[in-house]
Amino acid sequence: MDPKHFIFQTYAFLIISAYLFGNSCCSRIAQIDVGKPDAKFSINAPSSDWESLIFRIANGVGTFGKECRKHSHWYCLDSYRTLRPDEGGSNKSALISSGTGLDREACVAWFRILIRQNWIKINMINFWNYKDCCRGQAEEYLVNGFLNKQMAPDDYMAKLTDYKNEDNKPLNYLSAFYLEEYCLNLIMDVGFGPGNLRRDHHSEVVEGQPYVIAGSDIGGDIGIQHILSFVFPFDDPGNMLTFHWFKHNIMCRDNAWICNEKKKHSKKGLKKDSSKNGSDGSLGDSSGSSSGASGSGTSNGGSKSTTKGAKSGGSNKAGRKKRNGFSRR
Fold it and tell me: Does 222 map to a domain?
């Protein structure tokens, strides 16, 4: 385990253990709906090249967090978020041109077809109604794909499902809320992609205090209930919270296909590799451990709720928690 990560995990363990049997924090945070538009959040300005593949943690906090947890016990895909033409220092005159060759209605209609085939598989729900497809998802494409970047539907879908390219996806978005009783900043959303790190903080976030992806040891039904908490340093969270880490410790626990996709080789066209050793970033054994996943306290288990829109073959059995590094005593 990386020594720096061990120190932060131990620090969080001591804090959380001290308040493990208290619930004042949980009751207070339940009264502040961080999913409402009027919640007190502020975010720093983006660089001109900023774009981000954003995921919401299924921690049960706020309107969106609660809707997410109804679909997945782990995470939901928010969108591939982009900037308006007048954001990030761009020239305001570079607004949408009618000469792009893309028909708005046709593009939205085609994207609705594409996302209907994939929204359950990639956890891209409508956060106002987790069973609904595809109004909310199509709105994300309309704004972030068509209007902001003149992306064709297939190109935007490719952005939503590109999980193989890990090295070009540094942490560049993070939203958080302060857990006063634990002296930790609760991570609600993370995003990966080009550009600077944008911190979307609630007004009560305390600078300098570590961030936490909450697990079952937080208490009060806050956090991902199938793992133990992970903490990340405030000054440089992206050093440990990489896309590789998030993919192997969160995403693949819910959607194993993401880490088990076969590599494709091309001679005359694309052919699937039938070798058992041809997986992309495979988790390997059933423990789900992966290289570079420092301080892992995760465990198998947890799956989509068995609703009308849930994946077939899902299991709601919670796995046994591993006690690697950060854990309850």
Answer: yes
- Please tell me the distance from the alpha carbon of residue 180 to that of residue 101, in angstroms, as a whole number: 52
Helix (H) or strand (E) holding 56: strand 52-57
- pTM value? 0.71
Task: Report the helix count and the strand count for the chain, using DSSP H and E.
Answer: 11, 10
> Is residue 103 in some structural domain?
yes
Token couple for 104: 């708005």
Alpha carbon distance 64, 223 (integer Å)? 14
Radius of gyration of the chain (CA): 20
- Residue 151 CA to its chain's centroid (Å): 22
Kindly report, residue by residue over 283-300, the tens digit of the pLDDT. 233 333 333 333 334 334
User: How many domains would you assign to the chain?
Assistant: 1
Task: Give the residue among 175, 300, 307 at the shortest CA–CA distance from 226.
Answer: 300
Residue 239 belongs to what domain range? 3-272
Q: What gap in Å lies between CA 33 and CA 177, rounded to an integer?
A: 11
Which of 174, 200, 219 lies closest to 28 in space, CA to CA? 219
Is the per-residue pLDDT at 40 higher than 70?
A: yes
Residue 301 within a domain: no
Which of 314, 240, 234, 323 is CA-nearest to residue 74?
314
- Split at pLDDT 50, 70, 90, the class of 98 is very low
Output the pLDDT for position 313: 40
